[in-house]
Design goal:
The chain has 3 helices and 6 strands, in the order βββαβααββ. The model has no long low-confidence stretch (mean pLDDT 93). It starts with a strand and ends with a strand. The chain is α+β, with helices and mostly antiparallel strands and 136 residues long.
């Protein structure tokens, strides 16, 4: 699955995201629900921000993989954090985790600070939209 990156020049060069991702014809759209750092029993077991980001990203990618895609299938991703200052101070390790799982694929992205998540210990939640190539 190859997206066409849409980055209008007047918006300036994006850093760590793409302004628009145009999916090729014939792909199937997958909407991935927000994934947090909770384990299979529904419990968040760590308070570490970077570790929570890693777990949430891994779970989101697991849904995409189960549908037949991979990181390159993700066209849009939204990251919700409960502490924007923590995110900013940890951008380097968060970026390392991101690249370890996503490589150099940067979908259209948004980052939003929210007052809280469903789990009281939750600090990060990630949702995405992917386009899965049809089986040939």
């Amino acid at each position: 699955m190859t997206f066409e990156a849409i980055n209008p020049e007047p918006l300036g060069p994006p850093k760590g995201w793409t302004n628009g991702m145009l999916a090729p014809a014939g792909g199937r759209v997958l909407f991935v629900a927000g994934q947090d750092a909770a384990n299979a029993e529904g419990v968040v077991t760590t308070d570490d921000f970077v570790e929570q980001f890693d777990i949430a990203l891994e779970k989101m990618l697991l849904v995409v993989t189960e549908a037949g895609g991979g990181p390159e299938s993700i066209g849009r991703m939204t990251v919700f954090v409960t502490d924007l200052d923590a995110y900013r101070s940890l951008r380097k390790p968060v970026g390392e985790v991101y690249r370890a799982r996503m490589g150099k694929h940067f979908p259209a992205m948004a980052l939003m600070e929210v007052s809280r998540l469903v789990d009281p210990r939750g600090k990060v939640e990630i949702e995405a939209t992917a386009v899965i190539a049809p089986v040939e």
